[in-house]
């Protein structure tokens, strides 16, 4: 997959993202195309876009791009898009998959967004002990994930396959 370089509004290089994510950012007016592929265009339905090689964010964002984002409760909720990892409803709390009482830590891989009800029901038990299933595995956000979250773009947001296949 072709990668697109992302510049901050100040022209400082930040990260690379997939072509799909670059197109999402441009289509949502979160970024402008600074440099495009000289020959290729993306044509689909009413859409006709240059293939972005470099895009620049429309507004300046402050996020720790060059290192792993530090763990925080808010960061977990943003990573999981405020969706409960057990039922998919709106989450307002952070659950420790391995409970702190059993040595589970405040880490990206041990915490998930949870609704208050499921968090209370699970209590100091592992998902297995509580008979609860994780709908998705927790993951460590990449610098690109952190940047997209700061821009208010869903981390998992992607364009449909047919759009990029026509590039
Ligand atoms: Zn829930």
UniProtKB/TrEMBL annotation:
InterPro entries found in the cross-reference section: HNH, HNH_nuc, NA-targeting_endonuclease
Protein name per Swiss-Prot or TrEMBL: HNH endonuclease
UniProt GO molecular function: endonuclease activity
A Pfam cross-reference name: HNH
Record keyword Oxidoreductase present: no
Top-rank taxon: Bacteria
Every HNH nuclease domain range: 71-120
UniProt keyword annotations, A-Z: Endonuclease, Hydrolase, Nuclease
């Amino acid at each position: 997959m072709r990668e697109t370089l992302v510049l901050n509004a100040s022209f400082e290089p930040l990260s690379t993202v997939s072509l799909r994510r670059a197109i999402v950012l441009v289509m949502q007016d979160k970024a402008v195309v600074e440099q495009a592929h000289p020959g290729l265009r993306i044509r689909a339905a009413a859409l006709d876009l240059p293939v972005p090689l470099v895009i620049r964010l429309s507004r300046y964002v402050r996020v720790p791009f060059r290192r792993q984002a530090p763990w925080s409760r808010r960061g977990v909720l943003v990573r999981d898009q405020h969706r409960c990892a057990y039922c998919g409803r709106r989450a307002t709390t952070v659950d420790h998959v391995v409970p702190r009482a059993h040595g589970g830590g405040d880490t990206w891989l041990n915490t998930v967004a949870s609704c208050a009800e499921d968090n209370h029901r699970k209590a100091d038990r592992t998902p297995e002990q509580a008979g609860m299933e994780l709908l998705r595995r927790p993951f460590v956000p990449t610098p690109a994930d952190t940047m997209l979250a700061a821009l208010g773009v869903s981390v998992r947001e992607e364009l449909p396959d047919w759009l990029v296949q026509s590039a």
